[in-house]
Amino acid sequence: MSTIPNKFPSLISDDHDDKLLNELPKERFWEALDIFQWEGFWFDPNIIKSAITFKSSFEARDDDVLLASTMKAGTTWLKALTLCIMQNKNTHQTHDEYHHKHVDILTTENPHFHIPNIETITYSTKAPKFDIYDSSAPRLLQTHLPYAALPDSIKNSACKIVYITRNPKDTLISMWHFFNSIYKPHQDPIPLQKAVDCFCSGVHMYGPFFEHVVEYWQESQKRPQKILFIKYEELKSDPKRHVSRIAEFLGRPFGHEKEVDEVVWRCSLERLKNLEVNKSGSVLLYVTNSSYFRKGEVGDWKNYLTPEMEEQINQTSRIKLEPFGLFL
Ligand code: PAP
């Protein structure tokens, strides 16, 4: 973390943006950063600026693919899997032929470089691989923005969305580690009770978590051919089955089982974590590549949350998710 400054300057400077921000509700996120409420969700101000540009000017193609998620729900894993799936040509090649033909894209750069996050593009440490607004070729993109904030062209075109979510308690603990490493690298972590309170009240980066998930869940129920809704825990418990589901949804079904095995192995946490490209460097300012890879365990929250905190989050889930038939 030493190369990353412990400062968070605003990249927004012009008067128009300041005026917009002044009109939005503001809160302090984890004693580190002002976040603003826009479209019912909380964001860093630079993200709002990018999101407004995205919403008003992005023209989706039918063959674009958008990965969407709340923070710390398994995005890095989904990006790696999607990259491999989209590379897979389904030509019934042998295992050796597969190895020969496919340069392993995951060894060349961190998955967040290959599939850029739309709203944090201004935080890129180097020129992105492609212009996200250039529609001359299909794009693989990713966002943490809520469904309501997506451009109409995404909602109304045939472009596909894969949404990943995760148990809220594990999401929170992953977030807690992540933001502590960025905002408080050499200080005491933010008190966990404060993080739980912010999470349950929805006042956190890209929050509320619960409404974010429900929006995509409901859309995926209405239009299953448009939005595939995946749970991190499902991917962990039966990766081959769910990776195959993603591949079929994206119109790239695997030719034979060895291909699925190969993709699951290539994208495993242990492997990705130990690749040179992920052990150092950063795709985004303030965020080291290594910080995307931690334990990747289901139920890690049990090592941190008190029974009272557990109940606080369970109670919020019961109120906000379960009425929609959603159990995380
Ligand atoms: P982001 O929102 O910043 O993009 P995201 O990738 O969604 O982060 O979440 C990171 C979590 O996914 C980490 O979970 P943990 O803190 O509970 O450990 C990280 O370890 C986990 N993760 C990253 N890559 C993989 C992978 N290949 N397989 C399983 N889990 C992974």
From TrEMBL:
Pfam families assigned to the protein according to its UniProt record, in alphabetical order: Sulfotransfer_1 (PF00685)
The keyword Transferase is annotated on this UniProt entry: yes
UniProt signal peptide: none
Keywords, sorted A to Z: Transferase
Family annotation (InterPro entries): P-loop_NTPase, Sulfotransferase_dom
Source superkingdom: Eukaryota
Domain named Sulfotransferase: residues: 62-321
Enzyme class: transferase
EC number from the UniProt entry: 2.8.2.-
Family in the record: Belongs to the sulfotransferase 1 family.
Protein name according to UniProt: Sulfotransferase
